[in-house]
Write a structure and sequence with these properties.
CATH topology of the largest domain: Glutathione S-transferase Yfyf (Class Pi), Chain A, domain 2
CATH architecture of the largest domain: Up-down Bundle
Radius of gyration: 17 Å
Number of helices: 9
Distance between the termini: 27 Å
Strand content: 5-15%
Strand order of the largest sheet: 2-1-3-4
Helix content: 55-70%
Structural class: alpha+beta
Order of helices and strands: EHEHEEHHHHHHH
């Protein structure tokens, strides 16, 4: 099994790596330098990363790959309602990424930092707490103890941890890393995951957090 992504850490590939590592499933990992992307883009399905090479076939799209890796790692579920919960967390991660993406593109691709700052402030005002409150409400509805989304550790918790970490890591300009104080149940959930040994003992977890 081989994963390919850009030469930086990001939740779309990190959740796959963490899943596989959690269950001691070996995989290879190739990083594509950003400056080489345009030359290589057309050789990947849908012109996107991450991709997974499995049994000599290549597959794409974060949602599909996440479900596959979670199933391989026994971090998915067979219960239909719990599957819906897990998939909602995955879709939430994608939605909030789409919401903040314009401010990232303005800075990274357009080098228009004033535009990026304006878009980021609009995101903070209109979307930040709203979308994280959606995640907190899903946790309250889904979990009896607010410990794990389906009351047992799953890829939903890996996804939630990774995205919350991204937003609280000070890597996103103008976002107060303490915004979770407005969402006490989600904050407590996140802090518990940060100290969950089965997760934080993983090499990939240490690599992601050390990088910041």
């Amino acid at each position: 099994m081989k994963l390919i992504y850009f030469d930086f850490n990001f939740w779309r590939v990190d959740i796959l790596r963490l899943c596989l590592s959690y269950s001691n499933i070996s995989y290879k990992y190739e990083r594509v330098p950003r400056q080489d992307w345009q030359k290589k883009k057309q050789s990947f399905p849908f012109g996107q990363l991450p991709v997974l090479i499995y049994d000599n076939n290549i597959y794409a799209h974060t949602h599909s790959l996440a479900i596959f890796c979670a199933q391989q790692a026994n971090l998915y579920d067979n219960d239909k309602q719990k599957i819906l919960i897990i998939n909602q967390v995955l879709d939430w991660a994608n939605d909030i990424t789409i919401k903040i993406a314009p401010s990232i593109r303005a800075a990274m691709r357009e080098k228009n930092y004033e535009k990026s700052k304006r878009l980021r402030k609009e995101f903070i005002k209109n979307d930040l707490l709203v979308w994280f409150s959606y995640l907190e409400q899903l946790l309250k509805r889904s979990s009896s103890e607010n410990k794990f989304f389906t009351d047992k550790f799953s890829i939903a918790d890996i996804i939630a941890w990774r995205v919350i970490y991204w937003f609280t890591s000070r890597k996103l300009d103008h976002i107060d890393p303490n915004f979770l104080k407005e969402l006490p149940k989600l904050k407590n959930y996140y802090q518990n995951l940060m100290s969950f040994e089965s997760l934080n003992n993983l090499r990939e977890f240490k690599e992601i957090t050390k990088a910041d």
